[in-house]
């Protein structure tokens, strides 16, 4: 049973470009979470999704950031017109149904560097 | 939202020593988990422990939900225990908040 798969592991973008980060949850998991981690800091919640639904996006910046988890395929975190402050590690986690009472499993993260 | 505080922020241990990490949270939670982030950035789930006590090898954890805290015990520490330990708490609809972490360095 493969774990949570994130790609790419490293992504370099110039200011103004778009970044697309992908996350395939563990098999059988229908809940996905995205977190951002700045150097020497903890993980900041961004968004919580189930298949085809955004459950909680209270941690997502209102502009330039969007997330989706379609019926088929991976979850995508999209950052438009990236700025240097977007440079961070972005982690995806998944859990089975009923996330409130389940363990979270993390992917290896995508390190985004904005030049 | 729920506030999560971890202490101490940093811990330096001699190999073989024991230690206790603490996580305080500000409201009732349905879910509490401990994670270890190793020096390569990988996050490993150590415990799912909304209440009670669990043990896994040299690690154990206790959560006292009524008093809103959890403790992670590391016994006979090894250099591979180095990294950052995070506590994360979840509410009834599944959103998880992380504490700022405890940076642990185990020296030979």
Describe the structure.
The complex is a heterodimer of chains A (115) and B (108). Chain A has 115 residues and is mainly beta. Chain A has strands at residues 5-7, 10-13, 19-24, 31-37, 43-50, 53-56, 65-68, 75-79, 88-95, 105-106, 110-114. Chain B is built from no helices and eleven strands. In chain B, strands 2, 4, 5, 9, 10 and 11 form a six-stranded mixed β-sheet that branches. In chain B, strands 1-3-8-7-6 form a five-stranded antiparallel β-sheet, with no helix packed on it. In chain B, 38% of the residues are buried. The A-B interface holds A 31, 33, 35, 41-45, 48, 55-56, 58, 89, 91, 93, 95, 98-106, 108-109 and B 1, 30-31, 33, 35, 41-45, 48, 50, 86, 88, 90-101.
What's the structural blueprint in terms of helices and strands?
The complex is a heterodimer of chains A (115) and B (108).
Chain A: E1 5-7, E2 10-13, E3 19-24, E4 31-37, E5 43-50, E6 53-56, E7 65-68, E8 75-79, E9 88-95, E10 105-106, E11 110-114
Parallel strand pairs in A: 2-11
Antiparallel strand pairs in A: 1-3, 3-8, 4-5, 4-9, 5-6, 7-8, 9-10, 9-11
Chain B: E1 4-7, E2 10-14, E3 19-25, E4 31-37, E5 43-48, E6 52-56, E7 59-64, E8 69-74, E9 83-90, E10 96-98, E11 102-107
Parallel strand pairs in B: 2-11
Antiparallel strand pairs in B: 1-3, 3-8, 4-5, 4-9, 6-7, 7-8, 9-10, 9-11
Characteristics:
heterodimer; A: 115 residues; mainly beta; seven-stranded mixed sheet; four-stranded antiparallel sheet; 0% helix; globular; B: 108 residues; six-stranded mixed sheet; five-stranded antiparallel sheet; 58% strand
Output the helix-strand order of chain B.
Answer: EEEEEEEEEEE
Parts with pLDDT < 50 across at least 5 consecutive residues of chain A: none
What is the radius of gyration of chain B? 13 Å
Gap between N and C termini of chain B, in Å?
A: 40 Å
**Secondary-structure element pattern of chain A, one letter each:** EEEEEEEEEEE
Helix content of chain B: under 10%
Based on secondary structure, the structural category of chain A is: mainly beta
Enumerate the spans of chain B where pLDDT stays under 50 for 5 or more consecutive residues.
none
Mean pLDDT, all residues of chain B? 93
> From the structure provided, what is the oligomeric state, counting identical versus distinct chains?
heterodimer
- The beta-strand count of chain A equals 11
Number of helices of chain B: 0
């Amino acid at each position: 049973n493969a774990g949570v798969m994130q790609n790419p592991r490293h992504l370099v973008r110039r200011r103004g470009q778009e970044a697309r980060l992908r996350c395939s949850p563990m098999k059988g998991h229908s809940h996905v979470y995205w977190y951002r981690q700045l150097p020497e800091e903890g993980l900041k919640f961004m968004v919580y999704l189930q298949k085809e639904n955004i459950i909680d996006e209270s941690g997502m910046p209102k502009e330039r950031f969007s997330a989706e988890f379609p019926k088929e395929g991976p979850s995508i975190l999209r950052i438009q017109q990236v700025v240097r402050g977007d440079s961070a590690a972005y982690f995806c986690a998944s859990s089975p149904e009923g996330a409130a009472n389940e363990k979270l499993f993390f992917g290896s993260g995508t390190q985004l560097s904005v030049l | 939202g729920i506030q999560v505080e971890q202490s101490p922020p940093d811990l330096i241990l001699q190999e073989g020593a024991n230690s206790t990490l603490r996580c305080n949270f500000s409201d009732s939670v349905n879910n509490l988990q401990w994670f270890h982030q190793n020096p390569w950035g990988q996050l490993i789930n150590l415990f799912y422990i909304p209440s009670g006590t669990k043990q896994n090898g040299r690690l154990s954890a206790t959560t006292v939900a009524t008093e809103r805290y959890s403790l992670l015990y590391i016994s006979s520490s090894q250099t591979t225990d180095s990294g950052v330990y995070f506590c994360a708490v979840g509410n009834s609809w599944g959103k998880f908040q992380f504490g700022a972490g405890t940076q642990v360095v185990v020296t030979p």
